[in-house]
Amino acid sequence: MCGILAVIGDRLSKEKVSSLSKRMSHRGPDESDVHITEEGYVLSHERLSIVDLETGKQPIQGTSTAWMIHNGEIYNHEALRENELKHHKFRTTGDSEVIVHLYEEYGYDFLDKLDGDFSFVVVDGKDFIAARDPIGVKPLYYGTDDDGAIWFASEMKALADDCSNFAAFPPGHYYTPETGFVEYYTPDWYDYKKGKEKLDLAKLRESLIAATKKRLMADVPLGVLLSGGLDSSLTSSIAARLLEGTGKKLHSFSIGLDETAPDLIAARKVAEFLGTEHTELYFTVEEGIEILKKLVWHLETYDVTSIRASTPMYFLSKGIKDKGVKVVLSGEGADEIFGGYLYFKNAPSPEEFQKETIRRVQRLATADCLRADKSTMAHGLEARVPFLDKQFLKTAIETEPKEKMPSTYDGVEKYILRKAFDTPERPFLPDEVLWRQKEQFSDGVGYNWIDELIAYAAARVTDEQMAEAAKRFPHNTPATKEAYFYREIFHSHFPQESAAKTVKRWVPKWQADLDPSGRANTSHVASTAKKQLDELAKV
């Protein structure tokens, strides 16, 4: 997990590129380096050492003239070394190096061989290829400057000042000077009509276990983000089982406004059940408000949902890194795959339900993936997301949508995921957690976090400003004072029109109240939530 910057075309100095790259030093606090090729192309890398701590420094040279920078993890790198690349000589034992060797072996046609999360650039003479992983777990931006040079960077802040035009690099694509953008990832499940597979709970369960297992690859201490919700609790439970007998201790972490936060109560129960080394962290509303400007600089978004949820995640990530843990598992993606957001209960048909799950997964790069990556990497912490494993996605999304619709089973969201891990002979989770009502992360840390945030923003944006909002912000015009408040902060960091256009807003569907909080949905019943909390609080 790192920060990368490449400039193809300009003969920039090492000092210039290094200073721009250092804007992302939070992504890679362990090492940094810059390489300039004979053609004057520049590759810069800020490294967070996770695998091969001794020899994995980047940029990495291939067999001869090719060089590479990579952000992410390639989980099948050992298999690639032993098979497709068995005749290649490697300079490191890390996962990243296989990328440059695959380029040398296959040219542009190798992306489907990678199993992992990545953004990378390979340069070979005047040729180059840049690519981003299928779902967009890892961020990547691209742009051009006034001299025609092409820039690639993990975060917008490294290129925004120098590029006249820039945008987010599309997930599941690669770019070369010969081909332009090419979509290499086009799974069958992109077509909602292909969701015809019969429900197989055992296959679903084993697929998620396999996805979690490969994400335990690390040469540093490993932890789990444990909100007490279904998704993070399942990945924590699976990881705990996989680490049994290895001598490795699983660290779990949760956060809330105080000890009564819904997530903390549930997480406490799960941690005790799993026997993890558990840490609870707290933040105040005042502390959250105080770091908003810095947070938006890290996130590079003005989306309301992302900012609300990223604030506790930002504090949580700092606490985790302070404990010496550098890698965590997280539950992002499950709500999109299984229609877990409460508004999905209003889906008019299985067909529309399926379409919306696919749309949400395809837009994860602008929402939960962005939040998870940039909130954690603000403190040099790597988050891994088992639910977004390619094989698990195929298994889950291609299951018949009627099996996934909440209305089929008395309105219980993510029913088939819960059912797949409802194993009485050896439970993965306590029943009261396995069947707990969905809480979005920004709600679960404590309900008054959002309430007070809305009030704070409302007091700082006037009615006159809202009346002129469309003139000031014609693109994605903010519809609420809270949204306007965040937009002003974003604009102070990134005033470019291109920057504003990189942001996609998270808006619930099939719901009268368009506030993105889960509590805005009529399915969220306060009395039900209180009853669940009372049950969780019992010892």
TrEMBL record:
UniProt EC number: 6.3.5.4
One Pfam entry name: Asn_synthase
GO molecular function, one term: asparagine synthase (glutamine-hydrolyzing) activity
Catalytic activity: L-aspartate + L-glutamine + ATP + H2O = L-asparagine + L-glutamate + AMP + diphosphate + H(+)
Keywords associated with the record: Amino-acid biosynthesis, Asparagine biosynthesis, ATP-binding, Glutamine amidotransferase, Ligase, Nucleotide-binding
Domain Glutamine amidotransferase type-2: 2-180
Pathway(s): Amino-acid biosynthesis
Entry similarity comment: Belongs to the asparagine synthetase family.
Protein name (record): asparagine synthase (glutamine-hydrolyzing)
Species in which this protein is naturally found: Autumnicola lenta
